[in-house]
Amino acid sequence: MTKNFFEIENVSFVAGGKNKVNNVNLSIENEGDIICLLGPSGIGKTTILRTIAGLEKINNGKITLKNRVISSNKIHIEPEDRNVALSFQENCLFPHYSVEKNINLGATRKIGKKKKINSKDIIKFLNLEKILNKYPHEISAGEAQRASLARSLISQPDLLLLDEPLSNVDQSFKEEIQVELKQILTNSKITTIIVTHDSYEAFYLGSKCAIILDGQIKQYDDPYNVYHFPNSVEVVNFLNRGILVPAKVTGENSLENDDLGTIEGNFIKHYPKGSNVKLLLQPEDLEHDDKSNLKLEVVDRKFRGTNFIYTLKTPSNTLIPVFVHSHHIHQHEVDEKFGIKRPIHIDHIVCF
Asked: For a surface tag, which of 84, 165, 193, 306 has the fewest beta carbons within 10 Å of its beta carbon?
């Protein structure tokens, strides 16, 4: 018997006769936990959800939900008997039913001992009041996606599977929905797996994130560790939240880069003195200082509301991103010089 609420053990996920994601091991320890699957398009994220829902079969390993095997090479519980709800990215509403009737189909599912979710609250939260009497062909893709999400939430399954649930939602409305959605899932203890291509969404919603690349889960960890302690160059490149620069280890807590000089901090992994490594530099690792004698050329500046991300060019033509709070009075233009505070200290030195 497994101690985890949900578990995938040694499963290869297949679609169209071709392996998409191989030898997956993944577990959700507690009921009500939310995890996110991140990866590029076509990598197999949706295939994983379809298989968990029972729409695809497996040839090896097993999938367990609440101590019951729902998929293996010998067992295949039919989708309607799994108490698993799957909300697709595309419109999956019944075309001959109104939006309201589509949503209320979720209320007909067995609730069990869970506290019933009020359908009116869900409809209001997802801003669906004005389209309840319309039919799927009369509403937008974003509205259809929200109606499908409402139906899935109201059904209160043992496991909720969401495939890019907010991809068609306007950006101005998306963050508000994310906050409400997390509260509903957490308060109702609905265990959820969310597929998304948006790392910010995954880091906010998920208690853990799985990074899927090249047919494998490369890293499965809490969002903080995925971001600050990526375990491979592939994860670094996928997240695109920093760059790798060449450096030489000069001591137990120091290394040297030709452009930046000495960098000190705590190594996540030990490297012998003299080792040549690739150092991960993320935008928040370097600090701005107008008075510094280490000045680099500004080649780009992105305004992100709460901050600026400056792209700086080093003498060796390496492009380095640096975070600056938006309240910083002295803004730098392209081609100007930008000072980097010395001595450079990075709390967590990640190298490959």
From this structure: 306
